[in-house]
Design a protein that fits this description.
single chain; alpha/beta; Rossmann fold; four-stranded antiparallel beta sheet; 13 helices; binds iron/sulfur cluster; binds magnesium ion; membrane; cell membrane
Length: 324
């Protein structure tokens, strides 16, 4: 197993009190596989990724429990230097906003080249050639020329390709992409997703794809973990989940995505809003919004029930949901 997160807890200090952003998350990713982490904003998906990458804003964010096992070693117990080395080259992150993630006053070729100079000890000339090769690999047309341009001179889609090239430069074992296509138009989104899927296969890397959009993950993910209020509420192979969700929240998300095979169907919207993380509802945190809620849901926190070997649901009534 490439990455295994066990019982992770992250808290934030806010003016309203302590926000429980991540409350016992467990998930895993194998080499060459894609895990999609799905949830509304504020569900804890980005915070989980930041904890794995070691880029939580501390303070106010703090890991208060759990393990992050990467290639068998717990990143949370590794000493500073070693931890930095693992995270510096074996893991990489792709952000939603490439423009603010890239250095605005450095050409794209120089930024990419610098990775090889700093981490691989290459000469400037060799690093430049590698940079151009990589830009070509992510299908940036006229790569040698474009290497001399600055980030703002690229379109949104091309800039996201530059980010992907940066992430892949050191051939990491794990890439985390946080809403990599949210800012792009639909056609470009699909191209970027296809590129990511292709590179993931070629490099045999593990990919964690964080998104609020169930529509973008169907074709590229192997597994999906659905997050709500800092917990994973359903975890399943992607096709099983699409066929029959085992959690009412997943069902709501699925029913709110337009589907080609169900033209003319009315789109559903989950009522209400995600909870304030300083005041997470008692029992099942989804109960105020759940169309299936009943009394016990208000008092008893559902564990992640085993639906099958490969599948879990944190709903007391997952059987009804699955077969309903
Ligand atoms: Fe709904 Fe109850 Fe299941 Fe929570 S435990 S998702 S409130 S039915
Ligand atoms: Mg986010």
């Amino acid at each position: 197993m490439l990455l295994e997160v066990r019982d992770l807890h992250v808290e934030f200090r806010t003016r309203d009190g302590v926000a429980h952003a991540v409350n016992g998350v467990g998930c895993h990713v194998d080499a060459g596989r894609t895990l999609a982490v799905l949830g509304e904003s504020g569900s804890g998906k980005s915070v989980t990724a930041q904890a794995v990458m070691g880029i939580l804003d501390t303070p106010p964010g703090r890991i208060t429990g759990g393990q992050i096992l990467f290639q068998g070693r717990d990143l949370l117990t590794l000493k500073g230097e070693e931890r930095r080395r693992v995270r510096g080259s074996a893991m990489a992150m792709i952000f939603q906003d490439a423009l603010s993630a890239l250095n605005p006053v450095m050409t794209v070729g120089d930024q990419l080249g610098e990775m090889f100079v700093v981490h691989r000890g290459m000469s400037k000339k060799a690093a430049r050639a590698k940079a151009v090769g990589l830009m070509d690999r992510v299908r940036i047309p006229a790569a040698a020329q474009r290497a001399r341009d600055y980030p703002h001179q690229f379109s949104g889609g091309m800039r996201q390709r530059v980010m992907i090239a940066m992430a892949l430069a050191l051939e990491p074992a794990l890439v985390i992409a946080d809403e990599p296509t949210t800012a792009l138009d639909v056609t470009v989104q699909a191209q970027i997703m296809d590129l990511l899927a292709e590179l993931r296969r070629e490099y045999r890397m593990g990919l964690i794809l964080i998104t609020h959009d169930l529509g973008v993950v169907a074709d590229v993910a192997d597994r999906i973990a659905v997050m709500y209020a800092g917990r994973i509420v359903e975890s399943a192979p992607v096709h099983d989940l699409y066929k029959a969700p085992a959690h009412p929240y997943t069902r709501g998300l699925l029913d709110s995505v337009p589907r080609l095979d169900q033209k003319g169907r009315e789109l559903y919207a989950i009522k209400g809003l995600p909870p304030n993380l300083t005041r997470i509802p008692s029992g099942c945190s989804f109960h105020p919004r759940c169309p299936m809620a009943r009394d016990m849901c208000r008092t008893e926190v559902p564990p992640l029930y085993e639906v099958s070997d490969e599948r879990g649901s944190a709903c007391h009534f997952w059987r009804e949901c699955l077969h309903g």
